[in-house]
Amino acid sequence: MIPVLQAAQDIYGYLPREVLEKIAAELKLPISQVYGVVTFYAQFNLTPRGRYIIRVCQGTACYVRGGGEIFQEIQDQLGIEDGETTEDLRFTLESVACLGACGLAPVIMINDDTHGRLTKDAIAGILAKYE
Ligand code: FES
Q1: pTM above 0.90, yes or no
Q2: Distance from the CA of 75 to the center of ligand 1, in angstroms?
Q3: pLDDT per residue as tens digits for the range 24-71
Q4: Where do the domains of the chain lie, and which CATH numbers do they carry?
Q5: Cβ(96) – ligand 1 distance below 6 Å
Q6: Ligand 1: which residue has its CA nearest to atom 1?
């Protein structure tokens, strides 16, 4: 079931209910079993995600260097909170424990791009690059 769910999510960007119903029917499984797998694994999403995933580090090294303020600034500028997606499906915002770049604290990643040694003033310019 997992490869089928992964393939469906690659196509739709998330897993709509109708798609899960179709998968359950084709695999001859109860829909509850499909939902059980989807909700168990963090890789699966039941709601649409943005084209750009912003991961804001809230690990210790980043937090003591202002990671909390960076996170709040991004939330304020986008009008969304942790785990939410902007209405235009441009950004999804997620807090994470460590991005493995502690020397660059505070750090965010936007898809595969790393932005380090951030200040609040730099946020608007960075977000503007991702249209
Ligand atoms: S604590 Fe932020 S990158 Fe490690």
Answers
A1: no
A2: 19
A3: 999 999 999 999 999 999 899 999 999 999 999 999 999 999 999 999
A4: 2-40 (no CATH), 52-128 (3.40.30.10)
A5: no
A6: 59
